[in-house]
From TrEMBL:
Pfam families: Beta-lactamase, DUF7586
Domain (Beta-lactamase-related) ranges: 20-333
Gene source species: Streptomyces atratus
Name of the protein: CubicO group peptidase, beta-lactamase class C family
Gene3D superfamilies tied to this protein: DD-peptidase/beta-lactamase superfamily
Domain DUF7586 stretches: 353-437
């Protein structure tokens, strides 16, 4: 039996509509538009408005604020993948003269460079970027809040520096590089530096009365890489597919996966949220969501993806505050993932058998702890405890016959197959730990040796 994912069940659709209708009403938002994507296809969208007949659609632009940072991070990762820089490089190596040149590119991407959260001077989100014509005007005199690398401290000026880094290395403006390297390849024709009709206007809603005030929409100048962009539901869902799967035209799957890994300890007491490289990582409702939220005066935006469920949601609104946009987008993901769980792909055998690799599979013992080694799809290996939680990892083959851990406790560690003189396997060496075919196998090179008396009962 086959299954079509193009339509959601009526009950799920109504739950999604109820969710955004409640958010717009209780959050007193002038307008709101949202959509859900599953398996790369938009399966639901909906909108609400305070003006009958003027609800936005999937092609209406809203300002997306700090979601812009994820685009900037993708551009930086592209430079790394091309060998033009290393994430551990100090900023000074590629962008000299900033007075914070000792911080690394990795620290800037993950907001652990210790820089201030905001630019000095008047509120940068509501004033023209011409008030901050140089990087020194964005950083100010008191640039350091904390020592680099010690903690997560969100920094908008940090992403201004990353935008300047992109410009320096590419020899073109951040906006031009963005258009050429992300927007055009992904077909994001409705994402732009400045609003293009049809677009929403930004509003502030009075906290104690049902009245509104228009918000200015300033060009942020050098701060653009931190929050300038305008986009639509449809374009952001295209971007979500990149963040979930990778796309060799823009950024490969391995680099996208690296963006999703937490890069620094979470804020004190905030154990449900972390930050990767230009991506927020949240644990909400028993799910791990990756994406980003954004806000600028007059606008709120959120994009969340559950990679495991293959569900993404985007929500955009034109109000300064009052609506928890990140929670709304997360709720949309959870409604679909829980109401209509992902249908697994059919199991299929491998196209061919690697007999030598197959011989390594099965139970292995670290001391007396049973583990199992399995062949993974794509030619890798997976090591996991036979029962319960514990140390494990996926491994990928290296040219010299060893294996490197990709995740978990053994991430980056080397797995070696140690053989006897006749070619038979003696044991597995994993970061100095010895795994044997039997618990403390006396025929294997167990550190410390194995008692010659062997296993015994209480009365022995």
């Amino acid at each position: 039996m086959t299954f079509s994912s193009e339509q959601l069940l009526p009950g799920t659709q109504r739950a999604l509509l109820h969710c955004i209708a409640t958010a717009q009403s209780e959050g007193r938002a002038p307008s709101l538009v949202a959509a859900v994507q599953r398996q790369g296809r938009t399966v639901w969208s909906g909108s609400r408005s305070c003006v009958d007949g003027h609800a936005p659609d999937n092609d209406t632009q809203f300002r997306i604020g700090s979601l812009t940072k994820t685009f900037t991070a993708v551009l930086v990762l592209r430079l790394r993948d091309e060998g033009l820089l290393d994430l551990d490089d100090p900023l000074e190596k590629h962008l000299p003269g900033t007075d914070v040149g000792d911080v690394t590119i990795h620290q800037l991407l993950g907001h652990s460079a210790g820089l201030g959260a905001e630019a000095p001077g008047p509120w940068w989100e509501r004033t023209p970027g011409t008030l901050r014509p140089e990087l020194a005007d964005v950083l100010g005199e008191e640039t350091r809040m904390y020592s680099p690398g010690h903690r997560h401290h969100y920094s908008n000026p940090g992403y201004t520096l990353l935008g300047a880094l992109v410009e320096k290395v590419r020899g073109a403006s951040w906006a031009e590089v963005l258009r050429r390297e992300i927007l055009e390849p992904l077909g994001m024709n409705r994402t732009s530096l400045h609003p293009q009709a049809p677009h929403a206007g930004g509003w502030a809603v009075h906290p104690w009365a049902d009245v509104m005030l228009p918000e200015p929409a300033e060009d942020l100048g050098l701060m653009a890489p931190a929050g300038q962009l305008w986009s639509t539901i449809d374009d952001l869902l295209r971007f979500a597919t990149l963040l979930a799967e990778g796309d060799d035209r823009v950024l490969c799957a391995d680099s996208v996966e690296q963006m999703r890994e937490p890069s620094a300890p979470a804020e004190h007491g905030d154990w449900h949220f972390a930050y990767g490289l230009g991506l927020q990582v949240a644990h909400i409702g028993g799910r791990t969501l990756i994406g980003h939220t954004g806000s600028l005066p007059g606008f709120l935006a959120a994009l969340w993806i559950s990679v495991e469920d293959d569900v993404a949601a985007v929500a955009l609104t034109n109000t300064t505050s009052g609506l928890m946009i990140g929670g709304l987008a997360a709720d949309l993901v959870n409604i679909v993932a829980e109401s209509e769980p992902r249908i697994p792909e059919p199991w299929r055998p491998l196209p061919e058998v690697d007999a030598e690799l197959l011989a390594l599979t099965g139970p292995w013992y670290w001391g007396t702890r049973p583990n199992v080694l399995r062949m993974a799809s794509g030619g890798g290996l997976e090591l996991a405890p036979l029962q319960g939680a514990g140390r494990g990892a996926r491994f990928t083959a290296q040219p010299d016959g060893t294996w490197i851990g990709l995740d978990g406790y053994y991430a980056g560690e080397t797995l070696r197959v140690v053989r006897n003189s006749d070619g038979s396997v003696n044991h597995l060496d994993l970061g100095s730990f010895v795994f044997t075919r039997e618990p403390y196998d006396p025929a294997a090179a167990v550190p410390g040796g194995v008692d010659e008396g062997g296993w015994r009962g209480l009365g022995a």
